[in-house]
Amino acid sequence: MEIKQLSFAADSPPLSVLASAKVAAVVLPTPTIVTDSSSPPTIIFSDGTKLQGTYVLLRYIGRVASLPNFYGEDAFQSSQIDEWLDYSSILSSGSEFENACTYIDSYLEKRTFLVGYCLSIADIAIWSGLAATGLRWESLRKSKKYLNLVRWFNSISVEYSDGLNEVTTTYIGKRGLGKPVTVNSKELQVVNGDISEKGKVGSKTPEVDLPDAEIGKVCLRFAPEPSGFLHIGHAKAALLNQYFAQRYRGELIVRFDDTNPAKESSEFVENLLKDIETLGIKFKKVTHTSDYFDMLMEKAEELIKQGKAYVDDTPREQMQKERMDGIESKCRNNSVEESLKLWNEMIKGSERGLQCCLRGKLDMQDPNKSLRDPVYYRCNPVPHHRIGSKYNIYPTYDFACPYVDAIEGISHALRSSEYHDRNAQYHRIQEDLGVRKVHIYEFSRLNMVYTLLSKRNLRWFVENGKVDGWDDPRFPTVQGIVRRGLKVEALVQFILEQGASKNLNLMEWDKLWTINKKIIDPVCPRHTAVIEERRVLLTLTNGPENPFVRVIPRHKKHEGAGEKTTTYTKRIWIDYDDANSISENEEVTLMDWGNAIVKEIVKDESGNVTQLIGVLHLEGSVKTTKLKLTWLPETTELVNILLMEFDYLITKKKLEEGENFLDVLNPCTKKETAALGDSNIRNLKRGEILQLERKGYFRCDVPFIRPSKPVVLFAIPDGRQATSSK
Predict the structure, then answer these.
(1) The domain at 290-398 falls in which architecture?
(2) Relative to the CA of 608, which of 61, 213, 502, 596 has its CA 20 to 30 Å away?
(3) In this predicted model, what pLDDT tens digit does every residue of 425-481 receive, in sequence order?
(4) For the domain bounded by 219-288+446-518, which CATH number is listed?
(5) Whole-prediction pTM value?
(6) Active-site pick, 299, 323, 359, 455
(7) Which residues neighbour 579 within 8 Å (Cβ) at sequence distance 6 or greater?
(8) What region holds the tRNA synthetases class I (E and Q) anti-codon binding domain (predicted)?
(9) At the top level of CATH, which class does the domain 639-716 belong to?
(10) CATH of segment(s) 3-172
């Protein structure tokens, strides 16, 4: 049944219903505003039946939405969601508001969503209840009082920003929920191509529509080539496909474009699926272009017989020059019989067939060079990773993609703008093949500074041993940047903030790492390390004769990080740089202990500090000291660690067209620093993120195995650290 009417009282719009509909792409008619404040929110269907009440409407949207598990994946989760819907009403109670915030904050300590592992109407109901209070919630967001709750609220706000911003802009004022806000069209301006409210630079772009898209009838595909790992550019394409599929309640297919067996492998397929799962991409099924090889060969032969394609034995370099100059091949006007004869030689993979390729007969004089008789098939007798040696010929991407898109029922093909000139070729091939036309929607390719995204270039680094593999932390692959310490939530937020814009942008990595820091800093545990080289021993003459241990939080503002033990001894290690900055009789603060006064500084013949002697002054105020020092006890329990810092692989922000990346290789992209870490570091797990006090954020790549083998920690950029390339 179609929803014909939505109505609600002017002073109490059902924010959770409106927000859920936007997020789940459930189309609601323009609401009818009634003056009777006691009138409940009401939906009237095309047959005259109606539903009333905020939570009734919310549950209805949860059931009809295409978003997975929006109303729970089973009866138990649905019941949990019902409990949260009932609880959400407490947020409108002034006296209980902060108590409710405290409870939800505690509940979310180790959770991403309120119920299960994906967004549900429970999340939207609580999110809407908070947003509806206007400035009251905004002031609490800034107070750092509810870190888990704010993290959760911000995550939803960013991921579903377009729909939620539209609802909040319309229905929420500074004092909270109220009558719809009218924005005068004259108060809108264009900022960098994006429409925003006047004076509010950086407001989110309005939703972009797919051409001729209908709710429930959109089918999209994400089609990576299995010749490498997924990189950040592919991630943008994958996430945009998912965004539109969810928005239009459509389907998403993952298709492997496996038309080039020389570069492809099952290993790449497995890792691409792993990366797709990492990004949280939900798809209907996995297909392969190779599933359609028989059909594609039949279609190619039909084109030859129809005079729309011909076999050409022109050498490749000469063919490229003739295409550029608009010169027809000597084979273009060969008879159908001659082309079919050579086509069969290609199929057999004979010596004669290896000299040939199949070309479409389009228009050699067209100003758009992609239409100048493109290659459809090449003879390449190399075993295929899925189907072995069955074929000696393989279709090109340009020929296979338009056909398979049409056959698989794709309604809209999302392509980056670098393919713009080949869009006409795409549709011409569909026309010649007699299949339906697929809509093309272009988006800008994601380009990052100091970064190569060409798989051919990335493969060079792998094959020449310049990196340790496709998951190297210097690589822009999903596995590489996650291994370096990037949270997937940060990557998703960064990409969705770019939206489906067609404007070409060169993005800074700093922005991505800044988003990442905001996610990891509130929750990651704190540890201590001292650089091993030239470390200095500080002897506290009045320090404890017998070492003692205290249990302290791993993160002072996040109990969920757990606890750690700290040993207090008479002799402690500090970094050389810290020791070198201390003056005699200076009072310093030893972090997590208290103040001390350095009485004597011992130096060697070269003037290097070798030892410090001081006294504890625990009654001293930490507010009066200039230096706040990290330290480690002199014990045998310290852990050997290796701190790894990484730089860009090239030294130029952006390569110009035709410029060789080999000319701008960065000679030094990795720095190793030996250090000692506190004893708790032996408990770190691989992949765990931590902060070394005063040294930055790190990800544990190799955990503790034995004392002689160091724990390896990868430095995580925080968006502020300069590199040598900069």
Answers:
(1) Alpha-Beta Complex (3.90)
(2) 596
(3) 999 999 999 999 999 998 888 889 999 999 999 999 999 999 999 999 999 999 999
(4) 3.40.50.620
(5) 0.70
(6) 455
(7) 536, 538, 601, 609, 612
(8) 628-701
(9) mainly beta
(10) 1.20.1050.130
